[in-house]
Design goal:
By secondary structure, the protein is of the alpha/beta class. The protein has 19 helices and 21 strands. The protein folds into four domains: 180 residues, no CATH class; 179 residues, Rossmann fold (3-Layer(aba) Sandwich), CATH 3.40.50.11060; 164 residues, 3-Layer(aba) Sandwich (Rossmann fold); 56 residues, 2-Layer Sandwich (Alpha-Beta Plaits), CATH 3.30.70. The structure holds guanosine-5'-triphosphate and magnesium ion (MG).
Length: 604
Amino acid sequence: MKKSILYGDLTNLKTSLVQRLEQIYTYLVPREQFSTPELDEELLDLTQQIGREIAVYLNGNGRVMAVSIGDYATVDLPEVGTRRLQGLSGIRCLHTHPGGDSTLSEPDISSLRRLSFDFMGAISKTDKGEIFGTVGFLTGDFQEDGTPDVTVVGPCRERDLLRIDMKRLLASIQKKLLKHIERRTGKKKETALLAGVEIESHAAVLSIEDSMAELQRLADTAGAAVIGMCIQRRGKPDAAFFLGRGKVEELSLAIQQTGATMVIFDDELTPSQQRNLTLALGSKVIDRTALILDIFAQRARTKEGKLQVELAQLRYHLPRLGGQGLFMSRLGGGIGARGPGESKLELDRRRIRKRIHVLETQIQTISKHRCLHREQRKAAAVPLVAMVGYTNAGKTSLLNAFTGAAAFAEDKLFATLDPLTRRITLKSGQDILLTDTVGFIQKLPHTLVPAFQATLEEVREADLLLHVVDASSQQYEEQIEAVVRVLREIQVERKPTLYVFNKVDLCVDHLREQMLLRDRDGILLSARTGENLTTLADRLDAFFSERRKMLQLLLPFEKGRLLALLHEKKAIVSQEFLAYGIRVTANVPQNLLHLFSEYVITDQ
Ligand SMILES: Nc1nc2c(ncn2[C@@H]2O[C@H](COP(=O)(O)OP(=O)(O)OP(=O)(O)O)[C@@H](O)[C@H]2O)c(=O)[nH]1
Ligand SMILES: [Mg+2]
C-alpha cells in the first residue's frame, strides 16, 4: 500500500479534492514521454478547481515522487538537490499554470538551473479547452561565468510535446554535462546503467521500481552517475545471463549509445553470470552486493569496520576470480577502485585465503576487547539504547541533536558504518548510552550481514531499541518491515522497542501522523527542528524508571561503593545506619539488580 504526502498549501481544500490530489501518485509516465494526456487532464482540472498551481515531480522510472500545491518554487523537497555535480538530477518537474499561459517564468528557469531537473515543464488550458505546454532543458553547455545554458521549447500544443523522445534527448544532454564535469574536475566519472529482474512469483516487500530507485541511490552514494535502467519481468532469472538473451543485447546496445562505463545489477549475480555478462557486454558488471561493499569500503571508519569490510570483499571476490584471475577481478571491481580491500584484490587465491585467515584472527581479537568493554559497561551499569532503522532515516542526526555531538550525518545512504556511542544523562539523573548503528536496507545481501556483526552485537546487548523511521518516506511501511526482518534474523525482535517517527517537519498531513501511531508505541519528532526531542527524553526516563524494582537491602559497611551508586541513581527511598550495616529501601534499576542480589532482605 502506498502512502501519499502532499506538499505545500492545502488550506481550505475539500477532502474529495485532497483525495484526488493523492491519487496523482498512482499515475505513471513512460520514460520516453513528456507526460501523458490523462495526467495533464487531471492536473489541469484540479488546478482549475482549486485555483492554485500543482507541481508533480517524476523520477526516471516515470513514477510520481512528490506532488506539491501552490507555489512549487518554495517547496523544499527531500529528494531533490542532493545529486548535484552528477549531471541531470534524474527528476522531472511538471507543473500547471492556472491562467491560459504556459510560458516558463523566471523562477521556473532558475529552479531548472539550480536543481538540474531533467526538464521543467509547464502546462495550461486555453479558454477553448486546448492544452498547451512549454518545456525547458539544460543544454549541456555553460556560459562563461559557469551558468548552465537553458533552451525552451514552446509554448506549443500538447500533442507536439508528447512527440519528443525524452529518453534519447535526456541521454544526450546527460552525456554532454558529464563531459563538462569531467573536463572541469579532471576526473572521469563512472556512468552506470542499472538492470533488474522482477520475478513474477516473488512476493517482494519492495516493488521492482522501488528497489531500482534504491539501487539508484546506492549508486549515487557510491559516486556513479546513473544514466539509464532496464527492467525485465521473468519467471526466474536466467541461469547463465541473469537476463534473457534479447535483453542482454538491448543492454549492450544501450552501453554503446550512452557510453556507460558499467552495468549494476539489482540482485546478487553468481560468479558465472557475472563472467558471462562481462564478456557479453564488454563492460564492467557489478551487482548490488559489490556496490554495497564499495560504499562500505569508502565509509568504514574504525579499525574493526575496515577489517570487516576487507574480509567481506575478499570473501565476495574469491569465487569470482575464476580461471581468469586478475582480469576478471579488475573488471568486476567496484566503482573506481578503492577501499581497504582494493589493493589486495589482485592477490592470487592462495594468498587471499591466507589474508582472510589473518583478518578473521584480528577481528576475533578486537571482538574480545569489545566484550571486555561491554563487561566493564555492565559493571558500571549504564543501560544501552541502540538506534536501529532504515538507512537515511535520520539516526545519526537524532544522535547529534540529542547529544550535540558532531557525528557524521549526510544525505547519503550508509553514512554511518561503525557504531558510535554517546553517554547521556536524563532528567531523573539516569545515565544511558545511546548508540548509533549502520542503516538497514531492503535486500541487504546475506553475505554482508555477518560482516556487520560489530553493529549487530551492540543491538543484541541493548536494553531498549529506538526504531527510527523516516516518516516522510512514501515507503516507510516497507522500510519498517525490512528492518524488523533483520532484527528477527539476529533474534532481537522481542526486545522492548520504541518507534521514533523522524522528519515530521516534512509531513504536512496530520491524518498521516495519526496513522503512523495507530498501532505502534511511538513518538513523532524532528531531529532537524528539535520538535518533541524532550518528549523522547521523557519517554526514555519513564522507560528506565518503570524498570526499577523496590528492594529492602542490608548493605555491609564496607560496601559503601554500592550505597554511593544507589545515591547516584537517585534510587534511595530511605536509609538507616544500624550496628551491623546499613538498611536501605531503594528503587533499584533493573540492570543493577545483580549487584545487590546477595543483600536483599525483602523484595516487593
Ligand atoms: N527534514 C528533515 N531532515 C532530516 C531530519 N533528520 C535527518 N534528516 C536528514 O536526513 C538525511 C539522513 O540523515 P542521517 O542522520 O545521516 O540518517 P541515518 O539514519 O543515520 O543514515 P545512515 O547512517 O545512512 O543509516 C540527512 O540529510 C539529514 O539532514 C529531520 O528531522 N527533518
Ligand atoms: Mg547514520
